[in-house]
Amino acid sequence: MSVPNVSLAAVMPEPGAAVEVREVPLPDLEPDSALLKVELSEVCGTDVYLREGRLAGVPYPIVPGHVSVGELDKIRGTLLDVNGKPFAEGDRVTFLDVHRTCHTCWYCTVAKASTRCPHRKVYGITYGLNDDGLTGGWAQYIYLKPGARCIRMDGVPSELYMAGGCSLPTALHAVERADVRLGDTVLVLGSGPVGLSAIGFAKLSGAARVLCIGAPDTRLSSASRIGADATLNFTDRSDEARLEWVRSQTNGRGADVTIECTGVPAAVTQSMRFTRDNGTVVVVGQYTDHGETAFNPHLDLNQKHLDIRGCWGSDYSHFHRGVDILRMPAAAALWSGITLDSYRLSQTNEALAEVEAGRAIKALIVPEP
Amino acid sequence: MSVPNVSLAAVMPEPGAAVEVREVPLPDLEPDSALLKVELSEVCGTDVYLREGRLAGVPYPIVPGHVSVGELDKIRGTLLDVNGKPFAEGDRVTFLDVHRTCHTCWYCTVAKASTRCPHRKVYGITYGLNDDGLTGGWAQYIYLKPGARCIRMDGVPSELYMAGGCSLPTALHAVERADVRLGDTVLVLGSGPVGLSAIGFAKLSGAARVLCIGAPDTRLSSASRIGADATLNFTDRSDEARLEWVRSQTNGRGADVTIECTGVPAAVTQSMRFTRDNGTVVVVGQYTDHGETAFNPHLDLNQKHLDIRGCWGSDYSHFHRGVDILRMPAAAALWSGITLDSYRLSQTNEALAEVEAGRAIKALIVPEP
Amino acid sequence: MSVPNVSLAAVMPEPGAAVEVREVPLPDLEPDSALLKVELSEVCGTDVYLREGRLAGVPYPIVPGHVSVGELDKIRGTLLDVNGKPFAEGDRVTFLDVHRTCHTCWYCTVAKASTRCPHRKVYGITYGLNDDGLTGGWAQYIYLKPGARCIRMDGVPSELYMAGGCSLPTALHAVERADVRLGDTVLVLGSGPVGLSAIGFAKLSGAARVLCIGAPDTRLSSASRIGADATLNFTDRSDEARLEWVRSQTNGRGADVTIECTGVPAAVTQSMRFTRDNGTVVVVGQYTDHGETAFNPHLDLNQKHLDIRGCWGSDYSHFHRGVDILRMPAAAALWSGITLDSYRLSQTNEALAEVEAGRAIKALIVPEP
Amino acid sequence: MSVPNVSLAAVMPEPGAAVEVREVPLPDLEPDSALLKVELSEVCGTDVYLREGRLAGVPYPIVPGHVSVGELDKIRGTLLDVNGKPFAEGDRVTFLDVHRTCHTCWYCTVAKASTRCPHRKVYGITYGLNDDGLTGGWAQYIYLKPGARCIRMDGVPSELYMAGGCSLPTALHAVERADVRLGDTVLVLGSGPVGLSAIGFAKLSGAARVLCIGAPDTRLSSASRIGADATLNFTDRSDEARLEWVRSQTNGRGADVTIECTGVPAAVTQSMRFTRDNGTVVVVGQYTDHGETAFNPHLDLNQKHLDIRGCWGSDYSHFHRGVDILRMPAAAALWSGITLDSYRLSQTNEALAEVEAGRAIKALIVPEP
User: Fold this and answer.
1) Are D287 and D115 in contact, with CB atoms under 8 Å apart?
2) Burial degree of C262 (CB within 10 A; 0-12, 13-18, 19+)
3) What are the tens digits of pLDDT across the range C324-365?
4) Which residues of D64-77 are buried (b: 16+ CB within 10 A; e: fewer)?
């Protein structure tokens, strides 16, 4: 197959500006790099914030799209999987959007908290078009720089994987950190993509019941299909009504584990109140600064003997295990319950609008005609 | 020795009223109960709140004083230690102030969170004079009801033990929950009794450096003697100045572990900011409701990948291990650095005033002339 | 319903002797005790060892049967569940076979290892007929002494619960201790009742694949029905062939987690070899002394950076959570795959023979005609 | 300072042969590599096994000496510490002997068990003279290949650091894995370098008492100086006598934590027997294959509800934290209790003989005259 010289790419030129499709030259491959022909990428909430310019350190213009799946179109040199087996051109893969985790800084080596490594770069977010070229998924091709880590997609349909998308590793990290025990009642706050994948992983982890508070009803239907046993549309409900609902579902005690996936600061305070004494709260919905919230340290934390765990980013293990888990028939059945909406490269502004409005459940970008 | 028929006791008649010394008849001992002749009891911050009526469910009039040490004056039936060895009259002991942990409720049996057992009663706090008699340490005698758990004080001077007092099990529980690693930098917020004991336990647990932010200077001197490597008097310092001080002590990163022991809601938010990414915060200073505080869930929690752990109450293990630890020469050297102020039963109002004003570091009650 | 004066009971008179059915007088109920009318009890491997006299400290004659389900026939005083709700006569319940965990010894209070409490007594094993009366399930009635802990069976059919029987809490404890992670490959050695329940719990905990090595084929069929993805009949296989099979199922690395449930000492060594480096082995199959086994500490343990965890007994939480879990439809579907064989009180010798020979998968005792 | 063209190096030509001093040409430095002028290196038990040819995969001839301290003599390009600060020529440093941990294989990325990475190379052990040049510490110079990780020694005297030597990270890893709790009794089996450092770390971690069983008396004297509260010379003692001694020191229960550092397979079985029920055993003394040992899985493991943890290798964090810990005055006081014996490059055969015979406590190599 002859590779073209250019790739179409949907580019965010600067904060606040509309996305525009451009022709970008394909790079010369460095040793041990590759070119990925994109089959599917996605639009996530972060992309909305990127357009609004709410994230710091973004080198506009950028090509958004941090998690994608596609075919290895060209490999220069050697690209190995974690078992030491070389990838071949034509292999269908996804890749870790996080790049250049340094393995040398204090956070990487001493704290072993690599998601806090200050040197990491993220495809589609902190790599820019000018310096790094095709480094986002809203394009026909992505340049996989040396050191990019690919994962074989054998046994996992691309659409199934993208039903999770970047939420898959994010939610898996959160659910791992939640230490769900067999038979627990897990409450998920939020019914966006991270919330939905968190429901699925909580269910697979042995939660006896998974509850979800979210909106709108279309998303709550997806929540039910991916494993929620009971859902509540929070619209027009008071905080007290929500609390009462949670208690009515949990023997009056509150959830054993609550996973906050909302993006709304006040939901963090509510997550403490919705959780039983000595329970666990994982906060994974606050990836952008939306300001402060108030809580009562005596009633909401100290007296409750609560565990609250922030959860930032993901590493290779979450991608790898996420794909492994999707090979489980039980997982495939759950994630296939997520409704997908597909958009062309020329439709990314429309896709962003649908995601921002909460009308799309999971918006995919399909670069090829 | 002939036991008298009555015991002097300092009684809080009702919220807001002054403490008064009364004569209280000694009880008839039920089977497997005992009478403890009090050598030392204490005044802690909770006693100040008790006088102010800030705790719910207190059956006034009460005899305050929840942690005490003394001599078993009379035993009816059998009283065993955890090794199955019977106590004898004359043995010097302390006892677990928490009584009637039920071992049958959901929190005791399924969640294994016995400090959240709703049936537990606490000597000196939730036992009242009218129904339960001599159930506080501000008295010549304490009635150890059946099921009370005593601990031998062999090898631990009474004053050394009371230098920790009720803060000993409270702080030990907090430090256990902090998972201090060898070589960590631990920051303790607050230099009251819980803060001081937390410093000592953090130091013994292998912290390379223990920092303390507190006030006044007299307490910070105690902080230094019990193991703090550096202290900061927060008076007249801005939040920013405190943060800068912490960073200057921690390679710019913040503490590995912060233990909040202040009683001030805003300190909980600061504890998040003073802690490094992926560090741990234990909140043990919020035993009374002092209202809300604001924090930024994105900056202070989620992005920091932080662990925040509320820590409520203590159980027998914390008392037992606390006494065991004081048998270590290294521990004795630390706790002997705490300045003690002794008061008679007739001086408890004065003692409360000194504690409330933060002038007393550790106030003891000495019932016997 | 009028309660009779006597209960039929199948009694083991002494080690080595046949079980015989006797009439035993019903006890006078102490305050806060109860009489349980047995619907189903069970025969487990321990009962075979009891007949052989291989356990120490058994007060023959005994009525075997440690886990049972039935109806509360008569309650004297008050019997509460963990939520504080009183039981009523006619309620269908199971109860914790472990009694008199002391909550006062060093193991109960300081180590928090209550399954190592030296004071605990077990219905059907360490309670004897002469001193304690009807304290085993192979009888029409069981005397629930004061302090016995009952669990409501609402929503859980008796036969479904007894398909797990005493293996349910035992295996749940083992799987909790195994810390199965979502997507793990779990290997279960042994296909007796504990192995089968371990398979079910591992599957529910999110294992991507559960492997089982056992025998005979009838049990392996049950293994498949309760969740095993692949099974191996070890008969006529060498250790090397088994190892090769495990590796062929695990990318050449070995299982992430191995749960040993065999009763054969050599299987403990094999469990180390079948597990990947830095994996986890739980040993729960060695409840009786069958002698020693050899292993290589360098190759099998130190160089592998392995975790090996012994798992003894169970406590109330394992019974309670076990019943809760069986209320999950996914769990009911798994445990309903276990084949049950029912025996009358007069057939317990035959039942023991079937269990000993490995012909019965799960043998139940049905006391009522 | 003018760097010479050659370095003297003590070379093991092949298994079984005597070490000989050779002149080895200094390498041309690759980009971002460095030359370390060795101040001190060491002789450890592994070096004895290297001479005997008991380790697999060793590319003889080799220059032994895996942990060393010295001065950065020449840096080509940039060498950064974990805080991003560049090293300068003249800095006194140690470096991580483990090199080329890949950060890409399944063990590095998914299992996060980097000490089981199959690609790692160890200076002085699996790097050979022919292919890799000066890659061991028994030489005037070590070639620090690109990617080598150095640690500043500011505040830590070289001799103090080498008193731990390679045992420092090994023992720290073991003690971290032991989860020592404040007030525990820790038993260390073995009084060689790893055992001695394990004693020190256990003491610093808050062990109330550290016990050591070892030999000969000279090493037990070092054990006492580095923190052991009681020691037993095992020579001429039966297993029963040792067990009785441990019980006499532990209220009859056994140690809370036992750390096996002996190199003798039978000691692993004893470590199980010397530990209390529900205690923890860390096995770190079995770095070489010395054959099998027998144990009783029922009595020694399952019924005891024991945790046994193999501990292999170390990573950068153990070196970094080890150096940090030695900056604590309490640590310096402990490790200064280890007796050092120094040998020239021409005396390494003698040094090996002393180490093999157990006469040397810690043998250092001093390359410079």
Assistant:
1) no
2) buried
3) 999 999 999 999 999 999 999 999 999 999 999 989 999 999
4) bbbbbbbbbbbbee
Chain C residues whose CB is inside 8 A of the B116 CB are none
Q: How far is CA B94 from CA B41, B44, B137, in A?
A: 10, 17, 11
CA-based R_g, chain B, Å: 20
In the block, tokens 């939520």 appear at: C83
CATH 3.55.40.10 assigned to domain A173-310? The reply is no
ipTM of the predicted assembly exceeds 0.90:
yes
Domain residue ranges in chain C: 6-154+339-365, 172-310
Residues, chain B, total? 369
Calpha distance C185→B183 (Å, rounded): 36
Cβ-contact D55, D29 below 8 angstroms: no
Percentage with pLDDT > 90 across chain A: 97
Of C109, C315, C321, the CB nearest to B316: C109
The Cα–Cα gap between B358 and B341 comes to: 12
Q: Supply angle C-alpha C329, C334, C340, rounded to 5.
A: 120
pLDDT at A2: 56
**What integer pLDDT is reported at residue D185 of this predicted model?**
98
Closest CA to D279 of D303, D262, D263: D303
Using DSSP, state whether C76 is helix, strand or coil: strand
Retrieve residue C127's tokens: 């309670």
Terminal Cα-to-Cα distance of chain D (whole angstroms): 17
Which residues in chain D are contacts of C56 at CB distance < 8 A?
none
Our CA dihedral for C69, C72, C73, C77, rounded to 10 degrees, sits at 150
Q: Are A308 and B299 in contact (CB under 8 A)?
A: no
Whether residue A361 contacts residue A341, with contact meaning beta carbons closer than 8 Å, is answered with: yes
Tokens 């906050």 correspond to what residue?
A260
**Residue A4's pLDDT is what?**
74
User: Domain D170-310 is classified in which CATH homologous superfamily?
Assistant: NAD(P)-binding Rossmann-like Domain (3.40.50.720)
Which residues of chain D lie closer than 8 angstroms to A115, CB-CB? none
Give me the amino acid identity at B145. Answer: K
C302 vs D113, D284, D294: nearest CB? D284
- What mean pLDDT is reported for chain D? 96
Pick the CATH number of D6-154+339-365 from 3.40.50.1100, 2.60.300.12, 2.40.340.10, 3.90.180.10: 3.90.180.10
Following CA atoms B102, B105, B108, B111 in sequence, which dihedral angle do they give, to the nearest 10 degrees?
A: -170
Give the residue from chain D lying closest to A317, CA to CA.
D110
Residue A98 token pair:
């996080």
pLDDT band at residue A3 using 50, 70 and 90 as cut-offs: low
Range list of H helices, chain B: 45-52, 106-109, 129-132, 158-164, 167-178, 193-204, 217-225, 239-249, 265-273, 297, 316-326, 329-335, 348-356
User: What is the least distance, in Å, from the CA of A2 to any CA of chain B?
Assistant: 44
**Against a cut of 0.95, is the pTM above it?**
yes
